[in-house]
Amino acid sequence: MNCEDYMARRTILIVDESPDHRDILARLLRFSGYHVVEAAPSHALEQVLDVRPDLILCSLSLPGQHAWETVRQLRTLPDIAAVPILGATVYTTLIKRSLAQSIGCVDYVDKPFDLDGLIDHIRNLLSTPAIMA
What we know:
44% helix; globular; 133 residues; single chain; alpha/beta; 5-stranded parallel beta sheet
């Protein structure tokens, strides 16, 4: 099994309030060979325990700070402590970037996505040995 075959079997959990945004990202990631599970923030905790993803892509641009709290809650689960959480938002200031890292995101990507860049970013995170937030 080569490295690309291994990477293609990795599972990504997409957490976003918008079903349309989840669908677009899921299609892109599936086309790139990943297994994808989608969840609204209110279902993220149960989904993460059911599927044990290799990476979580979480939109942080949600009304009412739901996603920020979701990331904090995810980081309290011992079984997923080493799972990288990639935050995504339209808020690109240094303050938002540092807040994303302080709540448990290992990295941060800007919306709208550079789709090729997003796939490269995900591949890099998944090829990095156990990341602790």
